[in-house]
Sequence to fold (217 residues):
Amino acid sequence: MVKNIQLIEKILGANDQIAAENRVIFDQSGVTSFNFMASPGAGKTSLIELTVKRLLPEMKLAVIDGDIATTIDADRAEAAGAYAVQINTGGDCHLDAVMINSALKQMDLNDINVVIVENVGNLVCPASFQLGTHLSVLIASIPEGDDKPYKYPGMYRGVNALVINKIDLLPYVPFDMEYFRKGVEILNPGLVTFPLSCKTGEGMDAWIKWVTSCAVR
Ligand SMILES: Nc1nc2c(ncn2[C@@H]2O[C@H](COP(=O)(O)OP(=O)(O)OP(=O)(O)O)[C@@H](O)[C@H]2O)c(=O)[nH]1
Ligand SMILES: [Mg+2]
Fold:
């Protein structure tokens, strides 16, 4: 048991070292980088598509997409106007700093302003692996239920911003916003939060304003 714990500490320690290298690459390239994390299907790629379209042509975006298999999400990001790279983890439920480091080494960041990493859909493992990105964003969505902050505290604790996606479904799905927000506030007091709908576009202006303010450094 003790040996296992030490091994996990070593793996995470090695990961953090590479994450620090990634941060240097981002900083030296003048890029602002985001790590998008969420459950499967919460709307990470939908939000990326809309963000890319809204920020073009003033800002150029690159997307590093993490999935177990397929290039579906990188293809979507590219079709929206981003430079996109797909990482297939082959089964791993999260991206790690080494994977991001290999992707960065294939990319020309010279004319890129913003890099968005779309992590593998999962509310547990991605929270434990630093990637070296500047900001972590959690995308929650209404159909997941209002109890998720209470059940997945690690994810809610470690992020810099929270998107509450699919608010167009509020009339149809039981979701107590007050209960949800209370759980978030306990874990991450004052967390900047953007309720929005990628489907209707409601709430998108505030999100774009925040991303832009982070990107202009
Ligand atoms: N009603 C509604 N549906 C949405 C919204 N945003 C995304 N969707 C739908 O939700 C589904 C999943 O969206 P994606 O953007 O692919 O989600 P994802 O988090 O990237 O999914 P994975 O990468 O597979 O984990 C799609 O059918 C979207 O059309 C929204 O605001 N409202
Ligand atoms: Mg996706």
